[in-house]
Amino acid sequence: MSRKSIAEKKISKPDPIYRNRLVNMLVNRIVRNGKKSLAYRILYRAVGSIKRRTKKNPLFVLRQAVNKAAPNVTVKARRIGGSTHQVPLEIGSTQGKALAIRWLLGASRKRSGRSMAIKLSYELVDAAKDNGIAIRKKEETHRMAEANRAFAHFR
Prior knowledge:
mainly alpha, structural constituent of ribosome, Ribosomal_uS7_dom_sf, about 55% helix
């Protein structure tokens, strides 16, 4: 049994303009080489683009995109008896949100386009409408978990 204590969950501070924790979580994942002000600029431009394009509250679209891209189950490689099995595991909402944010940003980086802000806004709008690369990644993860359901007893 581990003697280490359980790490406390850190609650992120809300961002300065929208007073939203989800926006701050996204900014913290966008940051490259410590350039947080650039990450804020990218996200705020993406949010402005979403507002112009959809004529809806951009935070609602953002929240909807993250919720729709968040997976319920994932597969984890477990080594049992000399062979490695993909074991499906249910994941919590915070881990699901973290995966969704990672997938949304990765998908927007892969998109072809001019700037990261535009690519991110398109990916967020697509995810809110239930299509896009991040949603496909979620569906692929769910399919893998369903296919490996026989190994669920190895949890």
